[in-house]
Amino acid sequence: SRQHFDDRYYQRFYGQGGVHDREQIAHLAGAVHGLCAWWGVPPESVLDVGAGVGMWRDWYRTNHPAVHTLSVDISEYACATWGHEQRDIATWQPDEPFDLVVCHGVVHYLDDDAAAAALEHPGAATRFVLYLELPTAHDLAEVVDPERTDMEVHHRSGDWYRERLAPWFQQAGAGLWVRHGTVPLFE
To answer: 112: buried, middle or exposed (CB in 10 Å: 19+, 13-18, 0-12)?
Structure first.
């Protein structure tokens, strides 16, 4: 897996023609925030893990400035360039839980032990909702555009991730995981 997320990485995957842009993240963040509000748990605090160029944090600061946001990333380059706290989610978890934890395109870069730890830490750090996006082995083989997606990642099954998230969360779909006992979801 890629251990160093430098300017070349961000130019390739977040530059022109990259995998996500600010408008797409605005739609996604608005939808996630809206679903949290629909469920009766509008986020008052958001942790953005692996924040990269900071699109989630920036969306919250623009659209919901009263929401407390913390953006963290393992990359020294990303932290220096976009103003995040440097943290490794495989070894760090916050002292207090956040209403919404966003972990967008992070865990599939980690080896099995680090990925398992990285899923435990957001589990413990999430008060209500986790938004987790990562490609599974199936997604990497059948869904993603390999020209726009970093393929140098771990190819794990969806069941591998679900098994590790099950102690804390119920899968709601579309990348959303709801902490057990917080929001009643229909089967």
So the answer is: exposed
Nearest-CA neighbor of 70 among 95, 98, 42? 98
| For residues 128-140, average pLDDT | 84
Of 125, 133, 181, nearest in space to 20 by CA: 133
- Structure-token match 């809206």, residue found: 34
Rounded (5°) CA angle 76-50-31: 145
> In angstroms, rounded to a whole number, what is the distance separating the alpha carbons of residues 108 and 81?
23
Which residue from 126, 134, 133, 123 is spatially nearest to 168, judged by alpha carbons? Answer: 123
E runs forming strands in the chain: 45-49, 68-73, 85-86, 98-104, 126-133, 169-173, 176-179
Q: Give 1's pLDDT tier (boundaries 50, 70, 90).
A: very low
Dig out the tokens for 170 from the structure: 């119920």
Cα 113 to Cα 38: distance, rounded to the nearest angstrom: 35
Q: Positive or negative, the Cα torsion across 64, 98, 56, 102?
A: negative
- pLDDT value at residue 154: 67
